[in-house]
Amino acid sequence: MTCHAGFVYSEEFTTYRFRDDHPFNQMRVVMTKELLEAAGALSEKDIIAPRLATEEELSLAHSKKYIEAVKKAGQGLLTEDEGMEYGIGTEDTPIFKGMHKASQLLVGSTLSAIDAVMDGNVQHALNLGGGLHHGFERKASGFCIYNDGAVGIKYIREKYKAKVLYVDTDAHHGDGVQWAFYDDPDVCTFSIHETGRYLFPGTGNVNERGLKEGYGYSFNIPIDAFTEDESFLSVYESAFREIVDFFKPDVILTQNGADAHHFDPLTHLCSTMKIYEAIPKLAHELAHEYCEGKWIALGGGGYDIWRVVPRAWAQIWKVMSDQTPFQGSLPVEWVQKWQKEAPVNLMETWHDPPDAFKPIPRREEITEKNKKVLAKALQLIHNQKKFNSM
Protein backbone atom coordinates (compact mmCIF):
# COMPACT_ATOMS: atom_id res chain seq x y z
CA MET A 1 0.00 0.00 0.00
CA THR A 2 1.33 3.43 -0.96
CA CYS A 3 -0.20 6.19 1.14
CA HIS A 4 -0.34 9.90 0.52
CA ALA A 5 1.39 11.46 3.51
CA GLY A 6 2.51 14.94 4.51
CA PHE A 7 5.58 16.02 6.48
CA VAL A 8 5.09 19.24 8.46
CA TYR A 9 8.32 21.18 8.75
CA SER A 10 9.84 24.60 9.31
CA GLU A 11 13.40 25.59 10.11
CA GLU A 12 11.81 27.87 12.71
CA PHE A 13 11.12 24.80 14.90
CA THR A 14 14.64 25.36 16.29
CA THR A 15 13.56 28.69 17.82
CA TYR A 16 11.95 26.63 20.60
CA ARG A 17 15.20 26.45 22.57
CA PHE A 18 15.55 26.99 26.31
CA ARG A 19 19.34 27.23 26.47
CA ASP A 20 22.36 25.59 24.88
CA ASP A 21 22.81 22.94 27.58
CA HIS A 22 19.11 22.06 27.90
CA PRO A 23 18.25 18.47 26.87
CA PHE A 24 15.25 19.51 24.73
CA ASN A 25 16.83 20.33 21.38
CA GLN A 26 14.79 20.70 18.19
CA MET A 27 17.88 20.23 16.02
CA ARG A 28 16.77 16.59 16.14
CA VAL A 29 13.92 17.53 13.76
CA VAL A 30 16.38 19.13 11.33
CA MET A 31 18.60 16.05 11.54
CA THR A 32 15.67 13.73 10.87
CA LYS A 33 14.54 15.71 7.83
CA GLU A 34 18.05 15.72 6.41
CA LEU A 35 18.41 11.98 7.08
CA LEU A 36 15.20 11.29 5.16
CA GLU A 37 16.33 13.51 2.29
CA ALA A 38 19.72 11.82 2.17
CA ALA A 39 17.97 8.43 2.06
CA GLY A 40 15.80 9.59 -0.86
CA ALA A 41 12.61 9.18 1.16
CA LEU A 42 11.50 12.82 1.44
CA SER A 43 11.12 15.56 -1.16
CA GLU A 44 9.80 19.10 -1.29
CA LYS A 45 6.40 17.92 -2.57
CA ASP A 46 5.88 16.10 0.75
CA ILE A 47 6.43 19.19 2.90
CA ILE A 48 3.52 20.96 4.59
CA ALA A 49 4.41 24.48 5.76
CA PRO A 50 3.05 25.10 9.27
CA ARG A 51 1.23 28.16 10.49
CA LEU A 52 1.11 29.91 13.83
CA ALA A 53 -1.76 28.91 16.12
CA THR A 54 -4.01 31.82 16.98
CA GLU A 55 -4.49 32.85 20.58
CA GLU A 56 -8.10 31.72 20.29
CA GLU A 57 -6.88 28.27 19.29
CA LEU A 58 -4.37 28.19 22.15
CA SER A 59 -7.22 28.98 24.52
CA LEU A 60 -8.91 25.71 23.57
CA ALA A 61 -6.55 24.07 26.07
CA HIS A 62 -4.89 26.97 27.94
CA SER A 63 -6.24 29.81 30.07
CA LYS A 64 -5.94 33.33 28.69
CA LYS A 65 -4.05 34.43 31.81
CA TYR A 66 -1.48 31.70 31.21
CA ILE A 67 -1.07 32.71 27.55
CA GLU A 68 -0.51 36.30 28.65
CA ALA A 69 2.10 35.12 31.16
CA VAL A 70 3.98 33.23 28.43
CA LYS A 71 3.93 36.34 26.22
CA LYS A 72 5.26 38.50 29.05
CA ALA A 73 7.98 35.95 29.86
CA GLY A 74 9.26 35.96 26.29
CA GLN A 75 9.47 39.76 26.44
CA GLY A 76 11.38 39.75 29.73
CA LEU A 77 8.43 41.25 31.62
CA LEU A 78 7.35 38.36 33.86
CA THR A 79 8.39 38.52 37.50
CA GLU A 80 9.97 35.50 39.18
CA ASP A 81 6.96 35.03 41.45
CA GLU A 82 4.56 35.18 38.51
CA GLY A 83 6.72 32.69 36.67
CA MET A 84 6.65 30.18 39.50
CA GLU A 85 2.84 30.38 39.56
CA TYR A 86 2.74 29.30 35.93
CA GLY A 87 5.68 26.86 35.90
CA ILE A 88 7.74 29.27 33.82
CA GLY A 89 11.36 30.00 34.71
CA THR A 90 11.98 26.63 36.33
CA GLU A 91 14.98 24.38 35.72
CA ASP A 92 12.90 22.24 33.34
CA THR A 93 11.17 25.11 31.56
CA PRO A 94 13.41 28.19 31.63
CA ILE A 95 12.39 31.49 30.08
CA PHE A 96 13.76 32.33 26.65
CA LYS A 97 13.24 35.28 24.33
CA GLY A 98 10.25 34.93 22.01
CA MET A 99 8.97 31.80 23.75
CA HIS A 100 5.32 32.57 22.97
CA LYS A 101 5.81 32.73 19.20
CA ALA A 102 8.11 29.72 19.16
CA SER A 103 5.48 27.73 21.06
CA GLN A 104 2.67 29.08 18.86
CA LEU A 105 4.46 27.62 15.86
CA LEU A 106 4.68 24.15 17.38
CA VAL A 107 0.96 24.18 18.12
CA GLY A 108 0.18 25.59 14.69
CA SER A 109 2.25 22.87 13.07
CA THR A 110 0.08 20.23 14.74
CA LEU A 111 -3.08 22.05 13.61
CA SER A 112 -1.64 22.14 10.07
CA ALA A 113 -1.13 18.37 10.22
CA ILE A 114 -4.67 17.86 11.51
CA ASP A 115 -6.27 19.98 8.79
CA ALA A 116 -4.28 18.22 6.08
CA VAL A 117 -5.62 14.84 7.22
CA MET A 118 -9.15 15.80 8.23
CA ASP A 119 -9.73 17.84 5.04
CA GLY A 120 -8.61 14.85 2.96
CA ASN A 121 -5.48 16.39 1.46
CA VAL A 122 -3.37 13.52 2.82
CA GLN A 123 -4.17 10.27 4.61
CA HIS A 124 -1.42 10.67 7.20
CA ALA A 125 0.63 13.61 8.49
CA LEU A 126 3.80 13.72 10.57
CA ASN A 127 4.70 16.71 12.74
CA LEU A 128 7.93 15.97 14.58
CA GLY A 129 7.97 19.50 15.99
CA GLY A 130 4.97 18.66 18.19
CA GLY A 131 4.18 16.15 20.90
CA LEU A 132 4.67 18.45 23.92
CA HIS A 133 2.37 16.39 26.12
CA HIS A 134 3.16 17.75 29.62
CA GLY A 135 1.72 21.25 29.29
CA PHE A 136 -1.35 22.06 31.42
CA GLU A 137 -4.18 24.56 31.13
CA ARG A 138 -2.46 27.05 33.44
CA LYS A 139 1.06 25.73 33.79
CA ALA A 140 4.18 24.78 31.86
CA SER A 141 5.75 21.46 32.77
CA GLY A 142 8.43 19.06 31.65
CA PHE A 143 9.92 21.15 28.81
CA CYS A 144 6.40 21.86 27.48
CA ILE A 145 4.93 25.37 27.32
CA TYR A 146 1.82 24.88 25.20
CA ASN A 147 0.36 21.38 24.81
CA ASP A 148 -0.08 21.01 21.06
CA GLY A 149 -1.66 17.57 21.42
CA ALA A 150 -4.36 18.85 23.77
CA VAL A 151 -5.05 21.92 21.62
CA GLY A 152 -5.10 19.72 18.53
CA ILE A 153 -7.60 17.24 19.94
CA LYS A 154 -9.89 20.05 21.15
CA TYR A 155 -9.59 21.52 17.64
CA ILE A 156 -10.59 18.19 16.06
CA ARG A 157 -13.57 17.89 18.39
CA GLU A 158 -14.80 21.44 17.69
CA LYS A 159 -14.12 21.67 13.96
CA TYR A 160 -14.60 18.10 12.78
CA LYS A 161 -16.75 16.51 15.54
CA ALA A 162 -14.59 13.37 15.33
CA LYS A 163 -13.83 10.81 18.04
CA VAL A 164 -10.11 10.81 18.78
CA LEU A 165 -7.88 8.02 20.04
CA TYR A 166 -4.66 9.46 21.48
CA VAL A 167 -1.78 6.96 21.75
CA ASP A 168 1.37 7.98 23.62
CA THR A 169 4.51 5.80 23.51
CA ASP A 170 6.87 8.32 25.09
CA ALA A 171 8.79 6.90 28.07
CA HIS A 172 7.16 9.65 30.18
CA HIS A 173 3.46 9.50 30.94
CA GLY A 174 1.30 11.69 28.69
CA ASP A 175 -0.18 13.47 31.69
CA GLY A 176 -1.14 16.82 30.19
CA VAL A 177 -3.21 15.27 27.41
CA GLN A 178 -4.80 12.72 29.72
CA TRP A 179 -5.98 15.30 32.26
CA ALA A 180 -7.30 17.61 29.52
CA PHE A 181 -9.77 14.92 28.43
CA TYR A 182 -10.27 13.03 31.66
CA ASP A 183 -14.05 13.63 31.62
CA ASP A 184 -14.59 13.41 27.85
CA PRO A 185 -16.03 10.14 26.46
CA ASP A 186 -15.29 11.20 22.87
CA VAL A 187 -11.52 11.24 23.48
CA CYS A 188 -9.78 8.05 24.54
CA THR A 189 -6.20 8.34 25.83
CA PHE A 190 -3.76 5.44 25.93
CA SER A 191 -0.24 5.85 27.33
CA ILE A 192 2.44 3.18 27.63
CA HIS A 193 5.36 4.55 29.64
CA GLU A 194 7.97 3.81 32.26
CA THR A 195 6.44 3.53 35.71
CA GLY A 196 6.33 6.79 37.60
CA ARG A 197 8.04 5.13 40.55
CA TYR A 198 11.36 6.49 39.31
CA LEU A 199 10.48 8.86 36.47
CA PHE A 200 8.79 12.22 35.91
CA PRO A 201 5.88 13.00 36.08
CA GLY A 202 5.10 10.17 38.53
CA THR A 203 1.58 9.62 37.18
CA GLY A 204 0.03 7.16 34.74
CA ASN A 205 -1.14 4.34 37.00
CA VAL A 206 -3.49 1.66 35.71
CA ASN A 207 -6.26 2.93 37.98
CA GLU A 208 -6.33 6.39 36.35
CA ARG A 209 -9.54 5.71 34.45
CA GLY A 210 -11.26 9.04 33.87
CA LEU A 211 -14.03 11.02 35.56
CA LYS A 212 -17.80 11.42 35.12
CA GLU A 213 -18.81 10.70 31.52
CA GLY A 214 -15.15 10.13 30.68
CA TYR A 215 -14.74 7.27 33.13
CA GLY A 216 -13.45 4.23 31.29
CA TYR A 217 -11.79 6.17 28.46
CA SER A 218 -8.34 6.64 29.98
CA PHE A 219 -5.87 3.74 29.75
CA ASN A 220 -2.35 3.54 31.17
CA ILE A 221 0.25 0.81 31.06
CA PRO A 222 3.18 1.72 33.33
CA ILE A 223 5.97 -0.71 32.42
CA ASP A 224 8.91 -1.53 34.66
CA ALA A 225 12.27 0.21 34.44
CA PHE A 226 14.74 -1.65 32.18
CA THR A 227 11.99 -3.12 29.99
CA GLU A 228 13.37 -4.43 26.69
CA ASP A 229 11.94 -4.72 23.16
CA GLU A 230 9.94 -7.93 23.36
CA SER A 231 8.05 -7.01 26.52
CA PHE A 232 7.44 -3.43 25.37
CA LEU A 233 6.02 -4.52 22.02
CA SER A 234 3.91 -7.32 23.47
CA VAL A 235 2.24 -4.91 25.87
CA TYR A 236 1.87 -2.16 23.24
CA GLU A 237 0.30 -4.35 20.57
CA SER A 238 -2.05 -6.26 22.86
CA ALA A 239 -3.38 -3.11 24.52
CA PHE A 240 -3.57 -0.99 21.36
CA ARG A 241 -5.60 -3.61 19.48
CA GLU A 242 -8.04 -4.03 22.36
CA ILE A 243 -8.44 -0.29 22.94
CA VAL A 244 -8.99 0.66 19.30
CA ASP A 245 -11.59 -2.09 18.94
CA PHE A 246 -13.33 -0.93 22.11
CA PHE A 247 -13.34 2.79 21.21
CA LYS A 248 -13.65 2.67 17.41
CA PRO A 249 -12.20 6.14 16.76
CA ASP A 250 -12.65 8.36 13.73
CA VAL A 251 -8.99 9.44 13.83
CA ILE A 252 -5.82 8.31 15.61
CA LEU A 253 -3.30 10.81 16.95
CA THR A 254 -0.01 9.34 18.16
CA GLN A 255 2.73 10.92 20.26
CA ASN A 256 6.04 9.30 19.31
CA GLY A 257 8.63 10.13 21.93
CA ALA A 258 11.92 8.37 21.19
CA ASP A 259 13.16 8.23 24.77
CA ALA A 260 12.47 4.57 25.56
CA HIS A 261 15.76 3.68 23.87
CA HIS A 262 18.66 2.21 25.86
CA PHE A 263 20.83 5.25 25.03
CA ASP A 264 18.40 7.88 26.28
CA PRO A 265 19.99 9.81 29.16
CA LEU A 266 16.74 10.72 30.97
CA THR A 267 14.91 7.38 31.22
CA HIS A 268 15.52 3.80 32.35
CA LEU A 269 13.95 1.71 29.58
CA CYS A 270 16.15 -0.54 27.47
CA SER A 271 14.63 -0.79 24.02
CA THR A 272 16.46 -0.76 20.70
CA MET A 273 15.53 0.51 17.26
CA LYS A 274 13.27 -2.53 16.82
CA ILE A 275 10.42 -0.85 18.65
CA TYR A 276 10.62 2.24 16.45
CA GLU A 277 9.82 0.14 13.40
CA ALA A 278 6.96 -1.67 15.10
CA ILE A 279 5.25 1.28 16.82
CA PRO A 280 4.30 3.17 13.63
CA LYS A 281 3.57 -0.02 11.66
CA LEU A 282 0.79 -0.96 14.08
CA ALA A 283 -0.59 2.59 14.22
CA HIS A 284 -0.66 2.63 10.42
CA GLU A 285 -2.43 -0.71 10.20
CA LEU A 286 -5.09 0.20 12.74
CA ALA A 287 -5.68 3.65 11.26
CA HIS A 288 -6.59 2.00 7.97
CA GLU A 289 -8.69 -0.67 9.66
CA TYR A 290 -10.72 1.69 11.86
CA CYS A 291 -10.29 5.30 10.63
CA GLU A 292 -10.08 5.19 6.82
CA GLY A 293 -6.37 5.89 7.23
CA LYS A 294 -6.73 9.08 9.28
CA TRP A 295 -3.54 9.24 11.34
CA ILE A 296 -1.64 12.22 12.70
CA ALA A 297 1.75 11.49 14.30
CA LEU A 298 3.66 13.90 16.53
CA GLY A 299 7.18 13.93 17.95
CA GLY A 300 7.78 14.16 21.70
CA GLY A 301 10.63 13.21 23.99
CA GLY A 302 13.99 11.93 22.86
CA TYR A 303 17.23 13.23 24.32
CA ASP A 304 19.95 11.29 22.53
CA ILE A 305 19.57 13.43 19.45
CA TRP A 306 22.68 12.01 17.80
CA ARG A 307 22.35 8.22 17.91
CA VAL A 308 18.63 7.64 18.44
CA VAL A 309 16.04 10.27 17.55
CA PRO A 310 16.70 10.82 13.81
CA ARG A 311 16.81 7.07 13.14
CA ALA A 312 13.65 6.43 15.18
CA TRP A 313 11.62 9.29 13.74
CA ALA A 314 12.70 8.60 10.16
CA GLN A 315 11.05 5.18 10.46
CA ILE A 316 7.66 6.82 11.18
CA TRP A 317 7.80 8.66 7.87
CA LYS A 318 8.96 5.57 5.99
CA VAL A 319 6.01 3.59 7.35
CA MET A 320 3.60 6.45 6.64
CA SER A 321 4.68 6.75 3.05
CA ASP A 322 5.24 3.16 1.94
CA GLN A 323 5.27 0.79 4.95
CA THR A 324 8.79 -0.56 4.30
CA PRO A 325 11.10 0.30 7.22
CA PHE A 326 14.66 1.33 6.48
CA GLN A 327 17.30 -1.41 6.53
CA GLY A 328 21.08 -1.54 6.23
CA SER A 329 23.43 1.43 6.40
CA LEU A 330 22.64 5.09 6.97
CA PRO A 331 23.54 7.49 4.15
CA VAL A 332 27.29 8.11 4.39
CA GLU A 333 27.02 11.83 3.65
CA TRP A 334 24.58 12.34 6.52
CA VAL A 335 26.81 10.48 8.98
CA GLN A 336 29.89 12.42 7.88
CA LYS A 337 28.12 15.79 8.18
CA TRP A 338 26.68 15.28 11.65
CA GLN A 339 29.66 13.40 13.06
CA LYS A 340 31.54 16.70 12.97
CA GLU A 341 28.95 18.15 15.38
CA ALA A 342 28.32 15.10 17.58
CA PRO A 343 29.97 14.52 20.97
CA VAL A 344 29.56 10.73 20.50
CA ASN A 345 30.21 8.28 17.70
CA LEU A 346 27.16 8.14 15.46
CA MET A 347 25.51 4.89 14.52
CA GLU A 348 26.10 3.97 10.88
CA THR A 349 23.19 1.53 10.47
CA TRP A 350 19.43 1.83 10.88
CA HIS A 351 19.41 -0.98 13.42
CA ASP A 352 21.46 -1.24 16.58
CA PRO A 353 24.28 -3.82 16.52
CA PRO A 354 23.24 -7.05 18.30
CA ASP A 355 26.02 -6.64 20.88
CA ALA A 356 25.37 -2.94 21.56
CA PHE A 357 23.86 -3.54 25.01
CA LYS A 358 24.52 -5.91 27.86
CA PRO A 359 21.69 -8.32 28.75
CA ILE A 360 19.40 -7.20 31.58
CA PRO A 361 19.76 -9.68 34.48
CA ARG A 362 16.14 -9.18 35.66
CA ARG A 363 14.57 -9.77 32.25
CA GLU A 364 12.16 -12.53 33.32
CA GLU A 365 11.04 -10.66 36.42
CA ILE A 366 10.47 -7.44 34.46
CA THR A 367 8.56 -9.27 31.74
CA GLU A 368 6.32 -10.95 34.30
CA LYS A 369 5.58 -7.62 36.00
CA ASN A 370 4.61 -6.09 32.69
CA LYS A 371 2.33 -9.04 31.88
CA LYS A 372 0.48 -8.48 35.14
CA VAL A 373 0.04 -4.77 34.42
CA LEU A 374 -1.23 -5.61 30.93
CA ALA A 375 -3.68 -8.15 32.33
CA LYS A 376 -5.13 -5.51 34.66
CA ALA A 377 -5.50 -3.06 31.79
CA LEU A 378 -7.12 -5.62 29.50
CA GLN A 379 -9.59 -6.57 32.22
CA LEU A 380 -10.56 -2.91 32.56
CA ILE A 381 -11.14 -2.72 28.81
CA HIS A 382 -13.32 -5.84 28.86
CA ASN A 383 -15.27 -4.52 31.84
CA GLN A 384 -15.89 -1.23 30.05
CA LYS A 385 -17.08 -3.05 26.92
CA LYS A 386 -19.60 -5.00 29.02
CA PHE A 387 -20.78 -1.84 30.77
CA ASN A 388 -21.25 0.03 27.48
CA SER A 389 -23.26 -2.85 26.01
CA MET A 390 -25.73 -2.93 28.93
From TrEMBL:
Coiled coil: none annotated. Keywords: Acetoin catabolism. Gene3D superfamilies: Histone deacetylase domain (3.40.800.20). Pathway: Ketone degradation; acetoin degradation. CDD domains: HDAC_AcuC_like. One of its GO terms (biological process) is epigenetic regulation of gene expression. SUPFAM superfamilies: Arginase/deacetylase (SSF52768). Residues 22-319 form the Histone deacetylase domain. GO terms for molecular function: histone deacetylase activity. Belongs to the histone deacetylase family. This is Acetoin utilization protein AcuC. It comes from Halobacillus trueperi.
